[in-house]
Each structure stands twice: as C-alpha cells, then as structure tokens.
Design a protein that fits this description.
Elements (H helix, E strand, L loop, with lengths): L1 H4 L13 H11 L2 E2 L12 H7 L4 H10 L3 E6 L1 E6 L7 H8 L5 H9 L1 H13 L23 H11 L3 E5 L5 E5 L6 H4 L6 H16 L1 E3 H7 L4 H13 L4 E3 L8 E3 L12 E3 L10 H8 L20 E6 L2 E11 L4 E9 L5 H19 L3 E7 L3 H4 L5
Parallel strand pairs: 12-13
Antiparallel strand pairs: 1-3, 2-3, 4-5, 6-8, 7-8, 9-10, 10-11, 11-12
Length: 386
C-alpha cells in the first residue's frame, strides 16, 4: 500500500519520459526534497528516476525553474512543490513575519529594515544572486558564520514570501519576486487559515503514504507536532481519513480513502536518501526493518556502510544499501560498498542490480560502473573481496 501510494506500482512509461510523467510523480509524492550534496546526483532528480527510469534531467529543471510549474518552499525541509500549493503554505510565512519562527532572521529584519527594503528593491529590478547585490555587506558572527548580510536578507524575504527561488548552473540560488514565479491566479486565491491549511496538508500526506501513524503524517510537511495532532483528530472526525490498525505497529494508523492494496510490487531501484520512502527513518524501520541513517557527518573510521548510501528497493522490501559516488573525471559510477539485508539472496539480487546500476550511470552522465571491495553483496556484483 505504501509503495502504491508513492507511485511504484504505476505503469512504466511506454516511450520517452515527458513532463506528464514528471507531473504524475509529483502528484504521487507531493513534493521533492532538495539537498546540496551532489555525491551521485542532486537528490531532487533521483525520486523521479526511481519511479520512471531514465529521463532527461534538464526536463525537470525546465518544469521547476523555467516554466515555473513548481516552486521552492519550506515543506519537508527545502522542497519543490506545485505552484498551486502556494496558498497552503502562507500560514508559515505569516508566522515568520510575526517573529514566531526563524527568530534570528526576524531579528535582522527589525534591526536593518532599510537594508532589507533596499535588497527587495534590487530584486524588483531584476532576478539576482546574493553575490550580485550592489552591497552584499560581508560580515562574520557566531550564528551567521561567513554569510553576507545580503544573503541573510534574501533568506528572510524568502521565508516571508516576498521572493522565491530559481536555480542557475551549479544549483546557485537566483532570487526573484514570488509574483513572477507563482501565477497571479494562484496568488489571488483566498488564504486558508492555519487550521484549514494544516488539515489539507495532513490529507495530502496520507495520500502520499497510503497509511501512516500520526507522526508519519505530521512529518511529511513538517507540521508543528501539537497542532498537527489536533488537526488530525479534526480530519478523522470529519471523515477525511479513517482510523486503522496495522499489525505490528504500536500506534494507531490513519488510512487515506483512496489508498489501494495491489497484489504485488515488483520494482528494482536505488533510492535517494531523501526519498519519501526512507526520509522518515522510524517509518522505514517500522515497515521494512531497515535501520538507516546518512553517515556524511560520521567520522570516516566510524562509518558502518559508507559516506553516501543509497537504499535498494527490490519488490516489496528494502533489500540492500550501496555506497555510491559519481566520479566524473573517471567517467564512472563508483560502487564502493554493497551490503545485502539479512535473508536476501545476494546472487539473485546482484543479477538484477547490475543492469540497473548501468542505467543509473547513464542517468547521471557517466559511461562505466566500477566496483570496490566493501560489503557482503560486492562479490556477487563482480567486485573484489576485501
């Protein structure tokens, strides 16, 4: 049910992937989380690949940052969402402007109102990066680090909904007025109350998950926990979701009315660490017994699986994890570690996985796949034993 809700049982594209397929994926998962670490490829490109196979990454850039069908917002962390969702996030911006959230940014706005207004005036003239401000005002400080005052002002204007973000090459933020990104007819829609918006976001979370605990649903759009639980009770009372029990789950669950239980799921794919299937680590453990964390910030000597590890979805289980990086100078996808989960037939999995890894290599723009020595799955894949 969880995999169907996320689009893993949808029919594969019959031909070349086009924007209709990307829209279908977005319709399923509701948002794409962003992250700046491009070890394999920037993370927003991987969830569509996991559900559709190979596609032109430039197409996603056009949909998101040229044609403005999607826009950047703070949802499940920094994310891309359909522009039509903009009214549902206005309550967050209102709270930021009132100083209830992002208090350090609000403090800047109060202490430097003239400079913030000057920065906004420059964005009104033309889209720009922080470095293109007339006076970026470099500064140092314990909280701000090396960020310029201009960068912080732009961040504040983004949090309160005055400006939006597009991306240039190398994932550089370009700030523009939100009204030049989100269509006028969307901006003209009535603003829901915070309560209305939170109820709708919980229903959308349930649609994306199929079934989930209160914590699962609240986490999807990172709603305030206390308010989220109150709103969830209101949604259930109104019949928007049904209370349910899931065998083995200690907490109550909530079921979306459109959730379906297919006979099977037969997908083999790698997943981004920020894919909705695994971004909630507690849910991944509860559904698949998959204990997962990103070890980027773990000292090298203490890492268990590797620096940037991609889970492997095989059918209805998370079957393995791969420590992967793209080595562009060498023109290769480097599989540095490969680890099977307990009870997995390594030979059968490796037979299917090798072809998929070549597809992933082609997708990220290299020609070869090279195998290292780490992990019990590596010999079956063709790598060397440690």
């Amino acid at each position: 049910m969880a995999l169907a809700a996320q689009g893993f049982t949808d029919p594969a594209p019959a031909g070349r992937v086009d924007r209709r397929h990307l829209r279908r994926v977005m319709g399923r998962i509701k948002l794409l989380q962003l992250d700046s670490v491009p070890v394999v490829v920037r993370t927003q490109y991987l969830p569509p690949f996991s559900r559709l196979g190979h596609y032109d990454r430039a197409l996603l850039d056009r949909v998101a940052y040229r044609d403005d069908e999607w826009f950047e917002a703070w949802a499940h962390e920094a994310s891309l969402l359909p522009v039509t969702d903009e009214p549902l996030l206005r309550w967050q911006k209102q709270r930021a402007e009132e100083g209830d959230t992002w208090k350090n940014l609000a403090e800047l706005a109060r202490s430097e109102p003239g400079y913030v207004a000057e920065v906004l005036a420059q964005v009104e003239e033309r889209p720009l990066t922080a470095g293109e401000l007339v006076d970026p005002r470099r500064r140092d400080g314990e909280w701000w680090g090396s960020r310029s005052l201009g960068s912080i002002a732009l961040d504040w204007l983004f949090r309160i909904g005055e400006v939006g973000i597009r991306r240039r090459g190398n994932f550089t933020k370009e700030f523009d007025l939100l009204e030049r990104i989100v269509p006028a007819e969307v901006l003209a829609r009535p603003t829901p109350t915070a309560e209305e918006a939170q109820r709708e976001l919980l229903v959308r979370s349930a649609a994306a998950l199929g079934v989930g605990t209160a914590g699962d649903l609240i986490d999807y759009y990172r709603l305030p926990v206390r308010e989220g639980r109150i709103r969830l009770g209101e949604v259930v009372e109104a019949g928007g979701l049904s209370a349910a029990e899931v065998e083995g789950w200690p907490e109550p669950a909530y079921l979306h009315p459109a959730a379906r239980l297919p006979r099977s799921a037969d997908t083999l794919t790698v997943l981004s660490p920020f894919d909705p299937i695994v971004w909630n680590r507690a849910r991944a453990a509860r559904l698949w017994g998959f204990d997962y964390r990103i070890e980027i910030y773990v000292p090298a000597a203490e890492r268990v699986y590797g620096y940037y590890v991609l889970p492997v979805l095989d059918g209805e289980r998370l079957a393995a994890r791969l420590d992967v990086k793209t080595d562009r100078p060498a023109g290769a996808l480097q599989v540095q570690g490969a680890f099977a989960e307990p009870g997995v037939d390594s030979a059968a999995l490796a037979e299917r996985l090798r072809s998929h890894l070549h597809d992933l290599a082609r997708f990220v723009g290299v020609d070869d796949v090279r195998y290292g020595v780490q992990g019990d799955l590596m010999p079956a894949l063709g790598g060397r034993r440690p």
